[in-house]
Amino acid sequence: MNLEPVVFICAHPDDIFCVAGTLALLRQKGHPVYDFCLTPGQRGYHLPDEIPTAGLKPPRPDVAARRTQEEQAACAVLGAELVMFNEMDGELFAGREICTTVAARLADIKPRAVLTLWVFDKPDHSAAFSVAHTALHLAGLYWTTEFYLAPIDPAGYQFQPTIYVNVSSVIEQKKAVLRCYANQFGPENAAAHLQHARILGRNIFSDYAEVFATTMPLVGTRWDRPAEVGRLLLSL
Q1: Which region, left, alpha or beta, applies to residue 161 given φ > 0 means left and ψ of -120 to 50 means alpha?
Q2: Residue 48, in any domain of the structure
Q3: What CATH number does the domain containing 220 carry?
Q4: By C-alpha distance, which of 115, 153, 119 is closest to 230?
Q5: Residue 194 falls within a domain, yes or no?
Q6: Which residues pair with 211 in a beta bridge?
Q7: Of 46, 70, 71, 148, which has the fewest Cβ atoms less than 10 A away?
Q8: What value does the mean pLDDT take over residues 171-196?
Q9: pLDDT in tens, 94-149
Q10: How many domains does the chain have?
């Protein structure tokens, strides 16, 4: 049975790992899942003796191609449809053109929910939130679409979880998604992310969890807003 679609809007290939378990659960229930990846991650590589404050690295087409392939592999694990955009890694912002382009895709898909990245994070992640937020308004879908924010780092600045999703039953899929990103995640990084999920799981007496914040308070009724924020993820 096909249910209403769910769209994840992110900045880079590999951002999807933070919601991989939740998307796997939604896919199991019958929701079509889309991954809108706004950049191919052209600058996502390391230099010898790299200094974090040294400025932006030159974009590399070979890195973009490899990271796109990794994103395709991760989407295959999740049964998600990948939609790649071609914004510049490290320079993403919510300009009119990209927001209008994403809005047109959202208007066509008419998702039940949009998931994106926590707003107080690195600039590209913050920009992905702004693109998602603006595109929903441009598409006329903001008041009828559930909207969730996920942290790349659960200890992210000012992040307060509103919803915990128990992803214990699909943790092998989350692990498989992490393994797709050899370009970004070595064994130690992957283990650290899984440990975060395990720590979050303790808060809800489960083995593993993912967390989300909402842009609206979770209450029974809310100013006649058609979309009851929280209903979809709380049903998992």
Answers
A1: beta
A2: yes
A3: 3.40.50.10320
A4: 115
A5: no
A6: 164
A7: 46
A8: 91
A9: 999 999 999 999 999 999 999 999 999 999 999 999 999 999 999 999 989 999 99
A10: 1
Q: Tokens 């932006």 identify what position?
A: 56
* pTM more than 0.90: yes
Unique residue bearing structure tokens 């590999």: 14
SS (H, E, C) the chain: CCCCCEEEEECCCCHHHHHHHHHHHHHHHCCCEEEEECCCCCCCCCCCCCCCCCCCCCCCHHHHHHHHHHHHHHHHHHCCEEEECCCCCCCCCCCHHHHHHHHHHHHHHCCCEEEEECCCCCHHHHHHHHHHHHHHHHCCCHHHCEEEEECCCCCCCCCCCCEEEECHHHHHHHHHHHHCCCCCCCHHHHHHHHHHHHHHHHCCCCCCEEEEEECCCCCCCCCCCCCCCCHHHHCC
Q: What is the largest CA-CA distance in the chain?
A: 56
Residue 206 lies in a domain: no
Q: Which residues, including other chains, have CB under 8 Å from residue 90's CB and lie 6 or more apart?
A: 42, 43, 56, 57, 59, 123, 124
Which residue, chain included where needed, has tokens 């899942």? 33
- pLDDT score at 17: 96
- 21 φ, ψ to 5°? -65, -40
Q: Find tokens 């996920």 and name the residue.
A: 150
Tokens of 194: 């899984």
Amino acid 1: pLDDT: 56
Domain enclosing residue 38, as ranges: 6-164+212-234
58, part of any domain: yes
* 96 Cβ neighbours under 8 A, 6+ residues apart: none
Nearest to 29, CA basis, from 169, 208, 227: 169
Rounded Cα–Cα distance for residues 77 and 24 (Å): 9
d(CA 24, CA 44): 26
